Every structure is written in structure tokens, then in C-alpha cells.
Amino acid sequence: MQRALERGQSAILLVPEIGLTPQMVGVLDAAFGKKVAMLHSALTPEERSEQWRRIRRGDAPIIVGTRSAVFAPAPKLGLILVDEEHDQSYKQEETPRYNARDVAVMRAHGAGAVVVLGSATPSLETWQNAEAGKYTRIAMKERVMNRPLPQVELIDMRNEFKETGTKIFFRVR
Length: 173
Prior knowledge:
Layout: H1 2-6, E1 10-14, H2 20-32, E2 36-39, H3 45-57, E3 62-65, E4 77-82, E5 91-92, E6 98-99, H4 100-111, E7 114-117, H5 124-131, H6 157-164
Parallel strand pairs: 1-3, 1-4, 2-3, 4-7
Antiparallel strand pairs: 5-6
């Protein structure tokens, strides 16, 4: 975000839950001050309109919000971050139906911006796009505060079915 600002660009951070928005705004306010706007459905129409105007004028080039924030009128968009991109809350079920993650990818592409899809457990679509070379996968080798990485085991469920004769959706060891 700092690099985007240095280049005169704006950045959008999408968070999956409305409850995370004030927390993230607090962190970003500490770093960027009054350059941060917040967009989510709990704002009053007046609050939402004021945030929208601040963004459009360029007074708030850092935008934090839930899925609809992907449509913010960010001038010179340089970066879109989608936190927990696998989260189902990015899917809008009512008309118009959309997935904010997918809109973020297309909007970044159209603006020549960078999109970062963050997740410890990426969606199958994102994983497949990385495997196919459409996305660049960046693995984090360490966790925050040096917490240990979880142990992961790949299990071929076809073999499980052959051995047990039943469909197993998960196995506890």
C-alpha cells in the first residue's frame, strides 16, 4: 500500500467480515492517517456517500471494506488485496450476483493493477489458476510470531474408498 501511495496510486483491501473492517481501518489509520476510507453495508447512506466522495476526490486512496468495496471509485488503482480470498462471504447471492474476489481480479487486470489473493487455505479456483500458471503463487514459509506450520498430509480419497468401500470426506488421525 505504501508503494502504491508513493506512485500516486490507490489501494483497496477487501475483508470477508464487516466486523474486521474497523479493526483493519485502525491499523491502517495508524500507518496512513486520514488517507483511509471505510466502506461496508452498516454505514448510513450519508456516511457511505461521504466515504465515496473522499475516495473519488483522491483524499482517501486507501480503501478498506467488505465485498462491495471492490466497486469503490478509486482513482489510479494500483493494488487490490483480498484477505481470506476463499471465504464464501465474498459471494453476493442477491441480484446482482457476483464474487468480489473475481471482480477484484478483473478490475485489477483492467486497471493494470496488482491483485493479491491471500489465504492459508486458497479456494480450488485460485489453486488451479496458480497451478496452471495464470497466477503467481507466493508461499509464506513462516507464520506470524514464529508459530509452527501445520502438518499437512495429502490423501488420495480414491484409495480410501477402495480400502473401506465407503465414501470418507475426512479422516481424523
